[in-house]
Sequence to fold (170 residues):
Amino acid sequence: MKVFLIGFMGSGKTTTGKELAQALGYQFIDLDTFIEEKYNQTIKTLFEYHGEDYFRKIENDALLEVTEMKGNMVIASGGGTSCFYNSVEFMNSVGITIYLRVDVAELLSRLIASKRDRPLLWGKTKEELNNYIIRVLDERKKYYEMATITIEFEHLNIDRLASTIKSLSV
Fold:
């Protein structure tokens, strides 16, 4: 069983993924960490020196690679993973996708604290960042909403989610 967490950057995919994997007894893979280890470069460096198109291609390749690994796993995707190369359709065909939906104000609060590590946010003021989140979230919503399960992050309960996944995987 493969469980994919999708959603906007800063939505809590990595943190939730670790907790969910533990609750399920599954392996956890953070796709960004997998890419950084495979290419021996940070996501920031990959974006900076090769651009977004290159990054999206290797991100898709990494998604296909981790999906082929044996065993049950929870995979935290990058914020844009599900929006390129028909990836959300692919993830749905090989597992369960869970969209962690977080409102704009909460995303803004989380991302202000971490924008140095996020290439798509570099150099944006608070207002620009807010407008960016609104615009990109609107563009990506159609992909995120293709998920098997959508959870409002403020109502997330790991044990209940783990039970739901177990019932779907039978």
In short: Strands lie at 2-6, 27-30, 73-76, 96-101, 149-152. The helical segments are 13-24, 31-39, 43-67, 87-94, 104-114, 126-144, 158-168.
